[in-house]
Every structure is written in structure tokens, then in C-alpha cells.
């Protein structure tokens, strides 16, 4: 596969000796909506952090956007800024991502670090606040927002950078149904809707979210890739989903 | 409850229940923060000023209050602070509840011994050969009045200015980026940690039957403090990673969109003679 945003070759990673990923070899194609599907502890979040250059493999190598992704490569400021402009990451817990004193500042943080001109930042923040229905909250401290609002701010604070590749760790975790629908709709119709080369990679164990957003699925189990393919075929494989703890061990009888 | 106290009583539990009081205190902190935000965004004399003018003016008054050697001048600055506060919707009752009582209690611990320990002319003889001296009384009055005045001025600043604007103003006035960033994140994560603490306490309370005795309650509080420390370290690492993910490379950049108007200049100009009089007196 020539046009990949990420290529992983025999990648392994562990936390204090506990393996999180073991020998992962994977090509993630450009322009797709890829779900990293797995039960708790399967290595989804670790994989996303490796793809964003926040952690680095203990073994194996990762190529991002055609260049090696390593601590040495990101130590170079120009390379790091170029990479951060092109790849955005939304954390699972918005409380770790929202550290600025106001929602407005939160959205401006990324562009400021990437040296955008001030006027461009003000315009982009204003547009993004409007697009995400956050204008009324612009001066509010992020810690006083609801869970759904925090997720929206976290997503907007990354999308404002207009990344080519968007990484999301459990984008709908701990959200109520309406907030989940709001985030999923934004991902369905917003990111990548205008440009076919945008790539969305998200982790989840919610099969409904996968069905709505993803066109390609990678299934992880205990730090290894155990299946990969088009969404419809992976979701149709109930034996695989049960084995990987993504479906209940026994079918739940329908109510009524 | 509002600004009166950070301590809430919990229905069905006595005020002496340490766990309930800590939980109530954290809820009070959240409520107080909401109240402060509403006040800072409301109408008022200080609220209408450019935050840079406010920070610079109030900081100058605080420095002058620390510098002055006149009790009368100190009392006049405190009176000025009360007038500014009243014109900004921060009345004497609120100042008394939030500053004066607390500061008097803390500085009193230090100031009271000075009454008898500072040598000088005896004003009031006490048992055991001790006496309140004129110099001791003066020292205690200076200490208490300085603390009351500076704390009142600082409270006026934070109650009349949204915290993000205080930080931006500090940055605009040349406070190093790292310092401003640390202040901002400290303020932000006080609330995250407070919410985490509240969750921990309430999770424990939900699994308890009856009341803990004082010793068990203290042990519970200590255990939660340890857990919280560990979580705060984890949180710090996660926050750092999330900053890196958005391009942070050790230097923080902030937007500054303040407008300095005629009334801001008038405010600062009006404070110049006050500060000069305090310093030169």
C-alpha cells in the first residue's frame, strides 16, 4: 500500500514491563475513517499515542506521513511543528486537554504554539466557536463545563488546526446519548467532508459508533492486531466480536 | 451559602463529621468560584476597567501600603479599597466575611504576642510582670492593618476581573510566560483535583454505614490525600502530553486583546498621587 498516513512495522511498547502492544504491523491508509476496535486494555490508546509521537516504540518502527516518526525526528523544531500541524489528537479525558483559563484561549492555544498570525487566530477561533455552538461559552473556564461541552471544546481545539489526520481516543466515552450523537454527527459530516484525503483514526469499543463513522476497522486484542477489514465485514463477524469481548458472551434476548 | 463560608453541612450528618465537612468545603469552593465569576462579569467601576490598568493600579497600591510608615495612611488606603469595592458591587459585608475576619484570625496569632513582647512604654499592666506597650500596640496594628489592606486590594482585583484576564494582564505587564502559565494551570487544576477529591470522599461515604469516629475519619482523609497525590502526578503527565500534542515546545504563547481607554488612564492617574503620598509620607 503506497498511500498510507502511518506504517507500523513490528511495533512493541510496554508500561513498566507490562506489554501494551506486541509486534504490531499495520498500514493505515490515507483518506479513510479507521476505527481501532478493542475491549478495555487491548492497546488502542497506546497505539494512538504512538501514532501521535507522544510515546515511542521500544521495538519496531513507525513511519508517519512518509517520514520516520521517532524522538530524534521530533526533537527538530521544524519537523515537530510540521508534524503537529498535520496530525491532531483528541484525548479521551477532556480534563487533561483543557488546561487554558477560558474556552476562547483553549481554541487559540494550538494555533499560537504553531505561530499562526494573531488576526488569523482570532478569526479561526470565532468561526470554530460558532460552528461548535460554543460562542456563549467563550469566556467560561473549561472546568465549569458539562462533559459533553468539554468534549466539544476538546474536539474544536484540535480541529481548528485543520489537521490532515485526526486521532481520537474514545471520542464518545462517558457521554449521554445526545452528546454522543452530537460528536458522531460532527465527525460524520464535519471532518473530512470537504477533503477526501483527510484521515480519521479513532479508538472505541462502541459498535454503534463504529458502524456510523468508520469505513475500515482494525481489531485489537491484548496488544495485537487480530483482524482488519471493511467495517461491514468486521461487524458481521460475531464470533470475532465475542472472542474479543466486544459483544456479550451470550446473546441478550430482545425485550418484549 | 454563597461567599459566607466554604463549609457546608451535610444533611443527616453532624458538623463534627470530618469527612462530611471536607466534602462540604469542596462544594463550597465550587459555589464560591461560580459566584466570583458572576461578580467579575457583572457591572461595576472596577469591572469596567482594562485589566492591565487594574492589575498595575492595585499592585501599585499594595506596594505603597507595604511601604508606608503611617497608620492613618494605611487606614485611608483601606477606606479607598472599600469605596472602590462598593462601587464595584463588592460591599463591606462581603469584604468582612471573605477577608477581614480570616486575615484578623491569622495575623492575630502573630500580632497578639507583639503587644507584650515588643519593648517600650507600658500602656496597660498585665499579670506576671507583663504589659501591653505602646510600641507593641503600634507594631500589632501595623501588621494587622497592612495584611487587611493588601488582602482587601487583592480580593478586589480577583473579584472584579475574570481570572483569564488577570493572567493575560500579568503577561502584558511583563510577568514571564512560565510564571503566568503555572498560575493559570494551578488555578485550573485546583478545581479538577477538588472534583476528584470530592468524588473520592463521596465514593467512600457511599460505602460506609454509620459515622466514622474521629480517628477513622482522619485515617480516611490521609488515605485519600495519598491517592490524590498519585493522581495529580498522573494528571500532570497527561496534561503535558496533551500540550505537546498541540505543538507546545516549552514556551507558551498567549493572545492579548485588551483595549486601553481614557477611563483606564484616569484610574491610573488618580492613583499616582495616592501612592506618592503613601510612599513619601
Automatic annotation (TrEMBL), chain A:
Q: Which residues form the ABC transporter domain?
A: 6-247
| Gene Ontology MF term list | ATP binding; ATP hydrolysis activity; ATPase-coupled transmembrane transporter activity
Predominant location:
membrane
Quote the InterPro entries the UniProt record gives.
AAA+_ATPase, ABC_transporter-like_ATP-bd, ABC_transporter-like_CS, ABC_transpr_CbiO/EcfA_su, ECF_ABC_transporter_ATP-bd, P-loop_NTPase
Q: Name one GO biological process term.
A: transition metal ion transport
A Gene Ontology CC term for this entry? ATP-binding cassette (ABC) transporter complex
Q: Any idea where this protein resides?
A: Cell membrane
Task: List the protein's name.
Answer: Cobalt/nickel transport system ATP-binding protein
TrEMBL record, chain B:
Q: Please report the record's description of how this protein sits within the membrane.
A: Multi-pass membrane protein
Q: Which residues cross the membrane?
A: 58-87, 99-120
* Biological-process GO terms, alphabetical: cobalt ion transport
In Pfam terms, one family for this protein is CbiQ
Q: Does the keyword Transmembrane helix apply?
A: yes
Location of the protein in the cell: Cell membrane
InterPro entries xrefs: ABC/ECF_trnsptr_transmembrane, ECF_CbiQ, ECF_transporter_component
Keywords for this entry? Cell membrane, Membrane, Transmembrane, Transmembrane helix
The answer, when asked if Membrane is one of the entry's keywords, is yes
GO cellular component, alphabetical, reads: ATP-binding cassette (ABC) transporter complex
Instruction: Give the record's family classification.
Output: Belongs to the CbiQ family.
Protein name, UniProt field: Cobalt/nickel transport system permease protein
Which organism's genome codes for this protein? Answer: Rhodobacter viridis
